[in-house]
Structures are given as C-alpha cells and as structure tokens.
Amino acid sequence: MKTMQTVTTSEKIRIRFVPKNDLAGDPVNRMRCFNVMAALRGIGCDADLLKPGDPCEVLVILSLDFGRWLPEAARIQEMGGVVIFDLSDNEFRRRAELSVDKIKGMRRYAVNPWQVLQRGYFFFRRRKLDRGLAHMVRTCNAVTASTLQIQSDVKRGKGQVHYIPDMIDFDRFETAKRHQATTAPVVVWLGMPNNTIFLTEVAGTLARLQREIDLQVHLITHESTYQLYRDLNRRLDFSYHLIPWNLETVGDELRQADIAVAPLPAGVSKSINKIATYWMAGLPVVVSACEDYRALISHGEDGFLVGTGDGWARYIVDLAADARLRQRLADNGRSKVLASFSAPAVAEAWKACCERVYREQGRAANLPGRTV
What we know:
Layout: E1 14-18, H1 27-42, E2 46-49, E3 58-61, H2 66-78, E4 82-87, H3 100-106, H4 113-124, H5 126-139, E5 142-145, H6 148-156, E6 161-163, E7 186-190, H7 203-212, E8 216-221, H8 225-228, H9 232-235, E9 241-244, H10 250-255, E10 259-262, H11 273-281, E11 285-288, H12 291-296, E12 304-306, H13 311-321, H14 323-340, H15 343-361
Parallel strand pairs: 1-2, 1-3, 3-4, 4-5, 5-6, 7-8, 7-10, 8-9, 10-11, 11-12
Helix pairs in contact: 1-15, 2-5, 4-5, 11-14
C-alpha cells in the first residue's frame, strides 16, 4: 500500500498555467499568466504553460472553456495535484452589452474566432455560463481573484478564494512624467475596447468642461472600438483623440497626458491594474469609488475618488490648474505601486498561494516521477 506523504514548502513544485485564450497580447494573459510565470521563475519556481499530458502539482486555469479544461482539472487531481481557477473579470456580475456588431468587432482583436463565438454564446445563454462557473468553482481546489469584489462573490458561494492583484509591466514605465503648468490639460483613459462604454459615465462632464476650458481627451485602446460601438461618437458626446494601444509605446502615450480617469457604473468593480499603470506613468487619478479603488486609493493623497454629483468636474478642474497637486498625487501613487506591486512581490503572493493550496489539499506521493 502506497504511503501518502506531504511536500514541504521548501521543495519546488511544478506550477502550470492555462491562459485565458490564445492571444498572447491579451492583457489578462499578460498580467495573470505570462508575466506571472516569468516572475515565478525569477524567484526560483518551476512555472510554465501546461502541455498535453503534463504532470504538475498545481494547475492554474484562466480559461472559461469549461468543456475543454474541466477534464484536465480532473486528471491533475486524480494524479494528486491541485487546480486553481483564476478569475480576472467578475463573470458573476457581467453587464456588458452585446450585439452582432460587437461580436464582429471582437474578431478584430481575437485570434481564435471560436473563442469569440463562445463568449457570445455565454452572453446569450447566461444560465449556461452561470452553471459552468459554479461547476468550476466547486471542482477546483481554490479560486484566485483579481478584485476584492470577485473575492467576496466567490466567498458567498463558499469557495476557497485568494486575492492576488494583477502584475504590472514595470519595465514599460522606468520614467514618470514630471508635471508643469499647462493651459491645455490632457485627460487620458486607457482600457479594452469593450470597456470604452464606461466613459458614458463622464461623457456629459467632459463635454461641459471642454466648453469651459481648453481640455483635450485621449483614449488609448484598440481600433476595433469603432466596430464594437458604431455609435461611439454619439455616446461619447465630447471631443476625443483615439490612440491605438501598443505595448511598446503605451508608456510614452500616457506620459503625454496630465490627468487619468477611470469611470465605472454603480455596482461594478475592476482590477487595480489600470490605476497602478497610471501611477507608474506619473499621472494623478480621478476614479469611481468602487470597492477595489477605495481599498487602494487614499482620497486626496494619491488620487480622487468620485461617488455621485459634480466630483468629476471639480477634481479635474483642480488638477488641471495645479501642477504641484498633480505631481504630489502622482508621486504618492507611484511610490505605493513600487512598494507593493513589483513583480517579485506579486510572484511571492502566487507562490505562497500555490504552496498553501497544495500543502492543504495535494497528495505528493501520487505524482509520478517525483522524489519526496
């Protein structure tokens, strides 16, 4: 009879990842898969993508292709490993709009058309997605979440969940903007095409400010935004300059701005990666007071949180008029990111999570080819 043994945390465990989709440039893949694997290897871990039939102690699944990856999860667990389901978006509260135009537009920046059709299928058949999510949460040994809101929602479903923030590309932001007085301030928003619609929350405010001051607005996103939302110009009734997103130039594009914004509808909470990216570029932030942003930002010290009312206009005007205020908030925010969200710091959080889940639920002796 084989004796069950426990691996100590000093032993190297094999951590394998399944990315969200087949698009290497997808922000989720970059921040929660490829960058994480590189950072884990940087602190001495064995981390890589899952290969067919690959044994491992810990499997991290980002994909929503439940039919494909639930059998793999079962295989790893039968061999004594553990499976972690990583949620980068709050699929429990998804409210995005869907249309034929949007699905066609998504194909402009997704490599695999099947994944686009699958996402459309889930939107039209909400219960199918809900059942898949519930099954995945029950099947996996633990869930990792990119936001506190996701963590709360999974906990209500009685799943084991660990909050781990997105990993920021520090190498893209070695220098930060130095603020000077300006008579033509630039407000910038950075995000995925399907999140462009969140700007309707501040569209009226920005349009009014442009009538009162010489305010420019830059949107850094994928060009497919116009395919996703053919009526974008009507919805965003302010003047804006759309800058195609490029990983190699995004830092320079952000540093051309003076103020960064992150509006969200009521009840929606997002990862802090957008705020951290703004801070790394040296920008002060004005953002919606969602759960995750409230937990990160010290109002008036490193950014401004807006609930309801005229807060957007007031804070944007104050920042536009005061270069020293912009610099102080931006410097404080950048210091917070450098202290808490470096690649080694986030990698250590992933390592600790994987080791804890494996130590509590894994069965090392059942894994072939392993010395314990």
